[in-house]
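User: Protein folding is very new to me. Would you mind checking the protein record under this note? It all follows right here:
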Amino acid sequence: MSTPQVVVVMGVAGTGKTTIGPLLAARLGVPYAEGDDFHPAANIAKMSAGTPLTDEDRWPWLDAIGDWAHSRAGLGGVVSSSALKRAYRDRLRAAAPDVVFVHLTGDRDLIESRMSHRTGHFMPTALLDSQFATLQPLQADEQGVEVDVSGSPDEITDRAVAALRAHAGRRRPAPYA
């Protein structure tokens, strides 16, 4: 069996990173870290006020996630991060070169509906359009898979595990065998 890698569950707000991340980590038998917990208070205040983050706001957050991913090298783990731009994913890879991304994707209306029904989260539905405008999907040279978010959390997690296993068969070292 190969050494587990760190999986970054990425996507726009409302795709289910916080729901799918822990389920995926449990299924893979590795720890989970909630990406939102790495945000400085100033970022949370800004988003709570309906103001999108700038790249300058995101760099320290991404560095903290990258540090966590680096600390899990060879041990495996799952962490959530929107990782919307290639530059953000490059920054994460600079800290932890073997990360693999699971990009949660879906219909905008479905995602907005899910966002509008969640409670206790600082990201308002009003910022969803800015998230989609910022999103740069995974490119062919990036290690990762896309997973559709329609269906139940268990169905989405099943698709993520299957996609990771299929991806592992196409590259070395494999994230999970």
The first helix runs from residue 17 to 28. Confidence is low (pLDDT under 50) at residues 172-177.
